[in-house]
Amino acid sequence: MDIFWSILMIVLGFASIVYSYKMKRPKLDNSWDKIMTLRGYAGGILFIIIGIVTLIRGWNF
């Protein structure tokens, strides 16, 4: 079951990055939109890192 949650975290991280990229509006971006886009990317990368670490080390560390 631990493998399921780790893979789910990795998939959610990629989904967050893809969603942030697709929702980006290049011509209408103001500073608030850029910050929110960067937060989406950072959250996705964080989910991927957590998923990879838990996949390698397990959930009991």
List the helices and strands and how they pair.
Blueprint: H1 2-22, H2 31-57
Helix pairs in contact: 1-2
Describe this structure as you would to a colleague.
- It is a single chain.
- The protein has one domain.
- It has helices spanning 2-22, 31-57.
- It starts with a helix and ends with a helix.
- The longest helix has 27 residues, at 31-57.
- 79% of the residues lie in helices and 0% in strands.
Order of helices and strands, N to C? HH
* SS-derived structural category: mainly alpha
Give the biggest sheet.
none
Residue fraction in strands: under 5%
Helix tally?
2
Radius of gyration: 14 Å
The residue fraction in helices comes out at over 70%
Q: How many strand units? A: 0
Overall 3D form? elongated
N-to-C CA distance:
16 Å
Low-confidence stretches: none
Number of domains: 1
**Average pLDDT:** 84
Provide keyphrases for this structure:
61 residues; mainly alpha; 2 helices; 0% strand; elongated
Task: Briefly say what this structure is.
The chain has 61 residues and is mainly alpha-helical.
